[in-house]
Amino acid sequence: KGSDAGTSVFVQTGGDLNLDVTENDVPKDFIIFLWKFGTKGVVVTFYPNKQPQVQSPYTGRIESFENKFSVKLKNLQKKDSGVYVARVTTAEEQILTEYNVTVQDPVSSVNLTVDSVSITPDSSSCNLTVTCRTVEQSISRTFSCINRICNQEPRDRSKVPNLGASLHVYLLNEVIFCNHSNQVSWTESNKTIQEFCPG
C-alpha cells in the first residue's frame, strides 16, 4: 500500500523519474544517504567523498545529476510503483523527502460511432445516439437538438472510471467528443452534430 505522505507522481510505463533532493537539505556531516524503494531495499547509496553506489536491480537505470544527491531512475515499469524515500543518517536518522509513484500504461484508443439518428419532418428536432468504445469498455449517450440547440441526455458528465482511466462523452460547440484518459495520457475521437442533424 502506498504512503499518503510525500509527493504523488504519475509516470508512463517506460518513462523516467527524477528523485530530487537539494544539496542544502543533506547535512554536511552525514554518514550515509540513501534513496530507498519502500521497504524492499536500497536504490542508490551515497557516502561522503565517494562515488554513489547503485544497487541491483537498478544497475544501468540510474543517472546522476549535477546536484550530487538527486538521481534519475530510467525505464520505469509497473513493478516500480511505490514509495521512494530519501533517508539520511548523521548522529540520528531522518527522512528528507518521499515520492509516492504510480506507473501507468497509456490509455487505449477510442472510437466514436453514431448508432441512430431521428429527425422530425420539418428538421426542427433531431435525436442522435452515439457510442464511445475502447478496448475495455463502451458507453452510449443520446443528444437532443431542437432548432440546432443541443443538449445531452441524461445531463451527467458520462464519466466511467476503469482501472485508473476515465471515459468521457461531452458536447462542445455542436461537436461530440469522446475522451479516454488517465494521469499520464489521453486519446480522443469526435463527431460534428451538423453532419447528422441538418437544419
TrEMBL record:
It comes from the Eukaryota. This is Immunoglobulin V-set domain-containing protein. One of its GO terms (cellular component) is membrane. Residues 8-96 form the Immunoglobulin V-set domain. It is found in: Membrane. The keyword Kinase does not apply. Gene3D superfamilies: Immunoglobulins (2.60.40.10). InterPro entries: CD2/SLAM_rcpt (IPR015631), Ig-like_dom_sf (IPR036179), Ig-like_fold (IPR013783), Ig_V-set (IPR013106). Keywords: Glycoprotein, Membrane, Signal. The keyword Membrane applies.
